[in-house]
Amino acid sequence: MTRRLLIMLLLCLPMGALAEDRVLRLYAPEALVETGVLDYLLPRFSLKTQVKVERVSDAEAADMVLGGDGRALFEGAGQVWRMTLATDDPDAARFADWLTGDVGRRTVLSYAPDGEPLFTEAKVEKAEAVEVSFDGDAVLGHAVSRDKCRRCHAVDEASRMGTIGSTPSFGILRSLPDWDQRFAAFYLLNPHPAFMIIAGVTEPFDEARPPPIVPIEMSLDELDAMLAYVSAMQAKDLGAPIQHQ
Ligand code: HEC
Question: Tell me: the pLDDT tens digits for 1-11?
Answer without folding.
Answer: 566 655 555 55
